Amino acid sequence: MNVITINEALFHGAISVEMNNDGFRPWRIPYRELALFPPNGIGGEAIVPAGVRMAFQSDSTSVQVCFVQSEQEVSFDCLIDGRLHAALTAIPGETSVTWNSLPAIEKLIEIYLSPKQSVCIQQVAIETKASFSYFADTRPRWVTYGSSITQCKAAASPSQTWPALVAQNLDLHLTCLGYSANCHLEPMVARMIRDLPANFISLCLGINIMGQASLGPRTFKSSVIGFIQTIREKHLNIPILLMSPIFAPEREAEENQVSLNLVKIREELREVYEILRNHGDHQLFYVDGLDIFGAADQALLSDKLHPDAEGYKLMAQRMQPYLQDDFKITSRLGNEGTA
User: Fold this and answer.
1) Which residue in 84, 105, 261, 273 sits closest to 168, CA to CA?
2) Which of 200, 207, 310, 321 gives 239 a disulfide partner, CB atoms 3.0 to 4.6 angstroms apart?
3) What pLDDT digit, counting tens, does each position of 231-283 carry?
4) Which residues contact 153 (CB under 8 A, 6 or more apart)?
């Protein structure tokens, strides 16, 4: 097989790519600034490549990806022209996955990496004499920030997280900044989003701030305003979608140590939206998380907090119209949704 040259141009949806003696590791922060994103790179989640994919064009009928051996299962998806070809999972000890029987035509090949654990890529190979070119992605750029419910470890496979499904259906360039057990309105993340190229941005806020009591009634609203205003320093006129938490039965009414629950969190986020709209930000939009995943859907919660694989598909189906309506994006699926 023909080994292709790996560099940053191969990776899409990553913030940075670390090259070391083992290979290439994509990050969702600037990895050289790890110390500026405590603790340990946003709780160790910035090294997990949720939503990151390797993308190139080729007429090869097979693709092999080699990686550093993992102690856990590692899943990969191969998409052909935006459609899932096959999902493969390497068991502990395996160091490669191979997809065969790809269409023998020039096509876009995307290999989605795991939303569960970090991956260090050593080699990507295609058929000898097959064509190859890096993919220059000119699609609208969507940056989405959130918690584990945006990272989606329980998704059916790496390309079936709710952000990835929406991005595939709407032909978007996705950068997923969902950080499991985090999303505490980190100022460095706001600065990072501010500096990223973006055509629109979505922010799903509040679930872990309530669960870990990291902000209280005195600081939550002002922190959300500051986070959005930091982003607005360079993204003055692009749409930003502010989303409140989805349904979580054990956090709805019960107050945490600082007297917040999800009902109050949603009220405060709605107030932030109204404050900023009244302040002149007419490109800020709001969606109640309960409209995306509510009490009637709780059978699809895997642990009373996180949706299961079907729950994430449902979230994608319900989120898509907001991006179509607020961001004026035309879906290639029309009204068929993402289910």
Assistant:
1) 84
2) 200
3) 999 999 999 999 999 999 999 999 999 999 999 999 999 999 999 999 999 99
4) 115, 116, 180, 306
Give dist(CA 167, CA 165) in Å, integer: 5
The radius of gyration of the chain's CA atoms, rounded to the nearest angstrom, is: 20
Q: How far apart are CA 17 and CA 33, in angstroms?
A: 12
Helices and strands: H and E segment counts in the chain: 9, 17
φ, ψ (nearest 5 deg) of residue 16 = -150, 165
| Tokens coding 42 | 């946003």
**Confidence at residue 330, expressed as pLDDT on a 0 to 100 scale:** 55
Token match 């023909």: residue?
2
Extract the runs of DSSP E, i.e. beta strands, from 59-118.
63-67, 74-80, 83-90, 96-99, 107-112
160 backbone dihedrals φ, ψ, rounded to 5° = -115, 25
Contact at 8 Å (CB) between 81 and 121?
no
List phi, psi (to 5°) of 152.
65, 60
Any idea which residue has 């970090």 for tokens? Answer: 118
**Residue 210 dihedral angles phi and psi, to the nearest 5°:** -75, -50
Tokens of 237: 């006129």
Q: Which of 115-119, 125-129, 178-182, 332-336 shows the lowest per-residue confidence on average (mean pLDDT)? A: 332-336
Residue 47, exposed/middle/buried by CB under 10 A (0-12, 13-18, 19+)?
Answer: buried
β-sheet bridge partners, residue 243: 204, 287
Spatial separation of the C-alpha atoms in residues 87 and 103, rounded to whole Å: 16
> In whole angstroms, what is the distance from residue 281 CA to residue 283 CA?
5
Residue count (the chain): 339
39's tokens: 């603790």
**Cβ-Cβ contacts under 8 Å for 21 (sequence gap 6 or more):** none
Q: How far apart are CA 166 and CA 171, in angstroms?
A: 8
In whole angstroms, give the CA distance from residue 107 to residue 245.
38
pLDDT confidence band for 107 (50 / 70 / 90):
very high
Q: Which residues of 146-182 are buried (b: 16+ CB within 10 A; e: fewer)?
A: bbbbbbbbbbbbbbbbbbbbbbbbbebbbbbbbbbeb
Cis bond before residue 26 (omega within 30° of 0): no
